[in-house]
Specification:
Oligomer: heterodimer
Distance between the termini of chain B: 56 Å
Structural class of chain A: alpha+beta
Order of helices and strands of chain B: HHHH
Shape of chain B: flat
Order of helices and strands of chain A: HHHHHHHEEHEEHEEHEEEE
Number of strands of chain A: 10
Radius of gyration of chain A: 27 Å
Largest sheet of chain B: none
Number of domains of chain A: 2
Number of strands of chain B: 0
Strand order of the largest sheet of chain A: 2-1-10-5-6
Radius of gyration of chain B: 23 Å
Number of helices of chain A: 10
């Protein structure tokens, strides 16, 4: 990337650093180590644009998922329950763009690899800081896609908590990305447009990278995109594999609810007029059927026909005010989603059900028997299974 | 927007987001940095060292040795991408913690099939481009 080197104008506050003695310039630090003609800025700019688009999509959809899962107080009452499949689309996109970023990140880092051995290692303090920020950017980015990919398989070989680390590393990675774009802006601008004739090798390389993105996307996206299901070769889920043809994130045995039985089960709706309902009582209430997706934070999603009682009907029976926000408790022994909050916007939605049946059958224990919540446009972890209590707050 | 303004803005937002990430990692009660100060750094630096110190030298070496033609280079790039995405599932197949809906597919078979398909396409492409080049040389 020679055209970066015509010594940039040094700013008065930027302290120059000495060049180390040439005797230290050994191994890959020597000139001419890397022979490919593609270690050059135009290739980096083209792949960088694709990678930037994938990462930005991944970041924004991830942020949205975080806000939906743990809404801050000011946002809680403004979350929309429409479109019905909103979270299915955005979280599917999150995982698709994250997987697409894997070959793109690999190609980008290969293209700029010789820059790691540039000489002198640091021209000035500012240059040293820029290189440090690139180390943070690459370290955060590589760990981010790695943890994200492994989380889709529920594989956690690292000692830190996944969700919090993945969330905060994303800020670090995107911050580093913006600093990187700022530092390289003149170079990016110089190579933004294609110069004809193009490099034949570059075209071949970009074609290979495009093919890579295509293949990894087509062989994994079937876990959230129904018409790609037949090509799902490497995704950790198949939307049609599981009890009653639906995948499960946490089984009844894992949640410690496998002994729940209809005889001793009762639903409590705690409100101005508290009520207790048995399964038979619930079956007597007006039933509604809705086609709603379960969309998991890990990217897979599957639609099904759910039948049950509207949550708003239950709230009306308990005398809850129209703007009531409710708390739902599961029979689960523990777990971060044993108790979940449901803002009024979801609780009042005519499609939000306390489901008793799926696709015409009584719920499998793994799907939340005796009763589960299913609401439109919500992350799967909030679709509480094995519901025992609904409390008006 | 003049370049200068855009760059200043990018630096400011970039520093703010970086600061936000560092602050989050430092203060998150689940990450608990005071008791586990180096866990994340160790994995981030480990990833960096493995990627830049092992994987990229191998990739560069392959580029100057076996991957000398466009079909072979393309085949290897696609195979590497597929392997990066598929290998965790291949290695993890069967480990579902009692939830058989996780990793329900024959991942090893699928991976080998896709690698075989890439090899076949690469070989066919190599033959075709070889024949074409031969024909061009004979006028």
């Amino acid at each position: 990337m020679d055209d970066d080197t015509p010594a940039p104008r040094r700013k008065p506050y930027d302290l120059p650093l000495p060049t180390p003695p040439d005797a230290l310039r050994r191994g890959p630090l020597r000139e001419g180590t890397f022979t490919s003609a593609l270690h050059e800025p135009r290739t980096a700019v083209v792949i960088g644009r694709w990678l930037g688009a994938a990462l930005l999509t991944c970041f924004l959809t991830g942020l949205l998922s975080h806000l939906l899962q743990q809404p801050p107080g000011w946002l809680r009452d403004h979350l929309p329950s429409r479109p019905v499949n909103g979270y299915q689309v955005t979280q599917g996109l999150h995982v698709i763009s994250g997987i697409a970023a894997i070959p793109l990140l690999g190609a980008k880092l290969w293209t700029v690899y010789p820059r790691l051995f540039e000489w002198p290692p640091a021209r000035s303090v500012l240059h040293a800081l820029e290189r440090l920020s690139i180390a943070i950017l690459v370290g955060a980015m590589v760990l981010e896609v790695f943890t994200g990919l492994l989380n889709t398989l529920q594989w956690y070989p690292w000692p830190f908590p996944f969700r919090q680390t993945h969330f905060w590393l994303a800020w670090l990675a995107v911050g580093g990305l913006l600093l990187h774009i700022a530092a390289k802006a003149p170079l990016i601008a110089r190579h933004w447009r294609r110069v004809r004739p193009g490099l034949a090798q570059r075209r071949a390389f970009l074609t290979a990278v495009t093919a890579s993105v295509g293949v990894v996307t087509l062989t994994t996206a079937g876990q959230s995109v129904p018409w790609l299901r037949a090509l799902d070769l490497f995704a950790p889920r198949r939307p049609d594999v599981g009890p009653q043809g639906l995948p499960v994130n946490r089984t009844a045995v894992q949640a410690g609810t496998s002994t729940a039985s209809a005889e001793n089960w009762q639903l409590t709706v705690q409100g101005p007029h508290p009520i207790r309902l048995t399964l038979a009582d619930l079956a007597q209430l007006p039933q509604t059927t809705a086609e709603l997706p379960i969309a998991c934070v890990e990217g897979w999603s599957a639609s099904a026909h759910w039948t049950g009682v509207r949550v708003r009907d239950l709230l009306d029976l308990a005398g809850a005010p129209a703007d009531a926000h409710v708390q739902i408790t599961s029979l689960e022994k523990d777990g971060p989603y044993r108790v979940t909050d449901m803002p009024a916007g979801y609780a009042r939605d005519p499609l939000t059900l306390l489901a008793l049946r799926v696709n015409g059958q009584v719920l499998d224990p793994d799907h939340g028997y005796p009763a589960r919540i299913i609401a439109p446009n919500r992350p799967g972890v909030l679709q509480t299974k094995w519901v025992t209590r609904i409390e008006v707050l | 927007m003049p370049m200068r303004t855009a760059r200043t803005l990018l630096v400011l937002v970039g520093l703010a987001l970086t600061g936000c990430g560092l602050y989050g990692i430092a203060t998150d009660p689940y990450i608990d940095l005071t008791h586990h100060p180096l866990d994340i750094a160790r994995w981030a630096i480990g990833g960096l060292v493995l990627h830049d110190g092992l994987w990229l030298p191998l990739a560069c070496l392959a580029g100057v040795t076996i991957a000398r033609t466009t079909p072979v280079r393309t085949g290897l790039i696609v195979a590497a991408a597929v392997s990066a995405v598929a290998l965790p599932a291949v290695l993890r197949a069967g480990h579902h913690n009692g939830n058989p809906t996780i990793l329900p597919l024959p991942y090893l078979r699928n991976w080998l099939l896709v690698l075989a398909a890439i090899a076949v396409i690469t070989a066919a492409w190599s033959v075709v481009s070889h024949l074409r080049r031969g024909r061009r040389r004979r006028p």
